[in-house]
Amino acid sequence: MSADRQSANLRGLLGAEPVVATAGVGLFADALRDQALTVIEAEWQPPMEGTEGDLARVLADPRRAQANALAAQRMTASTATLVDVVQAKDAVGLERGTFLHAGPPLEWERASGPMRGALIGAVLFEGLAETAEDAEEQLAAGVFELEPCHHRDAVGPMAGVISPSMWLYELRDEVHDNMSWCSLNEGLGKVLRYGAYNDEVITRLHWMTDVLGPLLQQSVRSTGPFDITGILAQMLQMGDEGHNRNRAGSLMLLREMLPGLITAEGSSTDIAEAVRFSGANEHFFLNLGMPACKLATMAAHGIPGSTIVTTMARNGTDFGIRVSGTGEQWFTGPANTPEGLFLGDYGPKDANPDIGDSAITETGGIGGFAMAAAPAIVKFVGGDVPFALQATQRMYEITETEHPMFQVPILEFRGTPTGIDVTKVVRTGILPQINTGMAGAVAGTGQVGAGLVTPPEACFPAALAALAAAVDD
Are 450 and 381 in contact (CB under 8 A)? Predict the structure, then answer.
């Protein structure tokens, strides 16, 4: 609970009867209740171990308050408009033999099963190997360049692998003059982003490149641009949270794109299949919500003294964050394994550690931070409705502001918690809540479930230490 809300509660109770506010050991509060006194307990715990000196130094930085206010203002003022659909080689200058991936930097030797599977599949898709074995040998030999999507202002769900021939959504923030990109969504199950690379996966990727991408491009160019920020705001009112529940958003996007699709140049069979594929894919919109949130966090990045997190990303091995006031430096820790619901006969032993750039949604104030807007999400990721409500309410404790456009109906249309503050995470011990899909640990498996996860604690003290060093400089 914020200080302002606690003060309001106290003011409402004062005068009616004696009131005692307590913090710390609960036994004291219990003793007071035994005396028939009204007690208001403030949640409190020591900061993360070993962070006291860095925390004091950063909290005393005279730039911090103004820098964070500016970061929050930029983040919530950003816009996201779908302006084009283009191939990666043209959009981000991706060279043949270079592959983008989710999360912080990663070498093949440390790559997890689903990341390896996705890279193998991308090499096969690009025609750089005849067999999976050949692709794996070349990857292991360092023949290809691997680079994080974030390093080119792009994002990719799950393994997030992007190759030069793949088509990307291109989004623009008109307010801050930034661009971001994301791949097209393949659907669920055995798909490349979950590490599958069988013939079905490669055939689908070729269809997306030869048919779907060009048709979507025609639609956007003929009837666009499309306001993605507006769709995000509406879908939160309709039961979506923007990460693992995108049903309303996907249908609204298809409504916008449909006129351009049905009038596009192409065979009636291809157009019908493109419409069917897009309409049947409940995560069709995810790949636009992600770059929209990337644009918001890009607007907040690079402000000296700011302690606001602008990137959270996972590569299946490491979880990494970047912070506005520390530039392009990554702060990493071992990725945790999500806990949740599994498909078919899969169980916890089949799940890979957390993977994907899709935590950019939580970084931008939706996804796990907006679970109260989408209580039905618990049917997909586990937990229960009270947990969904509590998750959002808990995130207000570690964020800088509330988003003026992204609102939660059940919380009296309160704005979603936005702008993760490293100092608040370290001071409270509350870690950002993420809901996510789960990839199989073995390359080629595909999706095994969906669940809930938090970043490793180590990322935040490391970022705090860098912020403290910047104060000293």
Answer: yes
DSSP 235: H
Residue type present at position 407: Q
Q: Note down pLDDT in tens along the chain; length 473 residues.
A: 444 554 444 444 444 556 666 555 566 667 767 776 666 656 667 899 999 999 999 999 999 999 999 999 999 999 999 999 999 999 999 999 999 999 999 999 999 999 999 999 999 999 999 999 999 999 999 999 999 999 999 999 999 999 999 999 999 999 999 999 999 999 888 999 999 999 999 999 999 999 999 999 999 999 999 999 999 999 999 999 999 999 999 999 999 999 999 999 999 999 999 999 999 999 999 999 999 999 999 999 999 999 999 999 999 999 999 999 999 999 999 999 999 999 999 999 999 999 999 999 999 999 999 999 999 988 888 888 999 999 999 999 999 999 999 999 999 999 999 999 999 999 999 999 999 999 999 998 989 999 999 999 999 999 999 999 999 76
Domain boundaries along the sequence of the chain: 3-42, 52-76+296-472, 79-290
Per the CB < 8 A criterion, the answer to whether 268 and 339 are in contact is no
Which CATH superfamily hosts domain 79-290?
Enterococcus faecalis V583 domain (3.90.1710.10)
- CB-based contact 450:437 (threshold 8 Å): yes
Look at the block and give the residue holding tokens 């959009």: 91
3-state SS assignment for residue 151:
helix
> Is residue 135 classed exposed, middle or buried when 0-12, 13-18 and 19+ CB atoms within 10 A define those classes?
buried
Pick the CATH number of 52-76+296-472 from 1.10.730.10, 3.30.2130.30, 3.90.1700.10, 2.60.40.2150: 3.90.1700.10
Q: Which helix (H) or strand (E) holds 295?
A: helix 286-300
Give φ, ψ of 386 to 5 degrees: -55, -35
